[in-house]
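R.M. (postdoc): so does anyone remember the format we settled on? I'll just put the structure tokens first.
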């Protein structure tokens, strides 16, 4: 039992460096990703494992065969599978994601992590919402045009297929043994869409994604966007029990809004690691934790730490979180 708050750290591509591999080689095997994550947790002392390879894996499962693998950073889709309206009509969602050939390495990754740690650390799965998935299937520009200007029938056909994929993807990760399911919703923050659009259009699709889903382990996440303005609406309309706010959200305000109704994270702005001194990093970590620990359901977290951040600064960040996150004895 921890005598401190949990510390979640999003180190993803850094696993390749730990194994001395290229990004392409690293993500070719689930065993590589598992070993990379095991080494990172042992090295820095945080409390979570990632089963995430890269976001474009979902597009690969749906037919994308061109992925760009940079030398030092996350892979991404190099060719979109939806180029015309006809491509939307032809888009086929596999019947069973768990048995899909492209999902087998994720299964192996989770199996190894669970075996090696005997369940002591949660394994996180990354899942893309129906509203967000088209971004990696057709590109942001085309998706925004279809989203905002229609035709509505074609837009909804795509969204229904993406919703089907999300729900099957979630079922596959649950069967594989993941513990935490990060529901990534780019359109779920008023940093990205106006409140009117969020309430009238985005929220109903979020509800459809999550309808009937066991909320255990589900985490609402919008990248680096702010969540505080939408937390009440999400709680009213879904069964979500955990939130991962953006680094611009105030942790004290998150705690006041939630009032112990759900777990939440106080999130450090990882981009600051590039320019800040160790003293500045420690000061910010202390500020976030001091604000958030007033709540009974609080964890410390990071955004996605870029590969260019030196190991020394990652260590300063996490050492500070482990130090300041200790509960006072009474």
């Amino acid at each position: 039992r921890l005598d401190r708050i949990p510390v979640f750290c999003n180190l993803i591509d850094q696993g390749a460096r730990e194994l001395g591999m290229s990004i392409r080689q690293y993500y070719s095997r689930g065993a590589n990703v598992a070993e990379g994550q095991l080494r990172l947790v042992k090295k820095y002392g945080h409390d979570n494992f990632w089963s995430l390879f890269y976001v474009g894996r979902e597009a690969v499962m749906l037919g994308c065969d061109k992925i760009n693998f940079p030398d030092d950073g996350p892979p991404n889709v190099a060719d979109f599978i939806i180029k015309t309206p006809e491509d939307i009509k032809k888009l086929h969602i596999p019947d069973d994601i768990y048995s899909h050939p492209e999902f087998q390495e994720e299964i192996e990754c989770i199996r190894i992590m669970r075996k090696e740690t005997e369940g002591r650390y949660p394994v996180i799965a990354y899942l893309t919402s129906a509203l967000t998935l088209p971004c990696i299937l057709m590109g942001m520009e085309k998706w925004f045009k279809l989203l905002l200007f229609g035709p509505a029938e074609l837009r909804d056909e795509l969204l229904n297929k993406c919703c089907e994929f999300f729900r099957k993807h979630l079922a596959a990760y649950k069967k594989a043994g993941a513990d935490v399911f990060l529901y990534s919703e780019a359109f779920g923050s008023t940093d990205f869409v106006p409140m009117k659009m969020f309430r009238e259009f985005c929220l109903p699709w979020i509800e459809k994604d999550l309808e009937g889903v066991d909320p255990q382990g589900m985490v609402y996440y919008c990248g680096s966007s702010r969540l505080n303005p939408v937390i009440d609406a999400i709680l009213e309309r879904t069964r979500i029990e955990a939130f991962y706010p953006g680094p611009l959200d105030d942790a004290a305000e998150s705690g006041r809004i939630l009032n112990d109704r759900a777990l939440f994270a106080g999130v450090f702005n990882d981009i600051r690691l590039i320019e800040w001194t160790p003293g500045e990093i420690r000061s910010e970590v202390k500020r976030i934790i001091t604000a958030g620990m007033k709540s009974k359901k609080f964890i410390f977290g990071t955004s996605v730490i870029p590969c260019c951040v030196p190991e020394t600064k990652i260590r300063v960040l996490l050492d500070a979180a482990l130090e300041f996150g200790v509960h006072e004895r009474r």
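R.M.: ...and that's the designed sequence above, right after the tokens. Also worth knowing: Residues 68 and 78 are 5 Å apart (CA to CA). The chain has one domain: 7-324.
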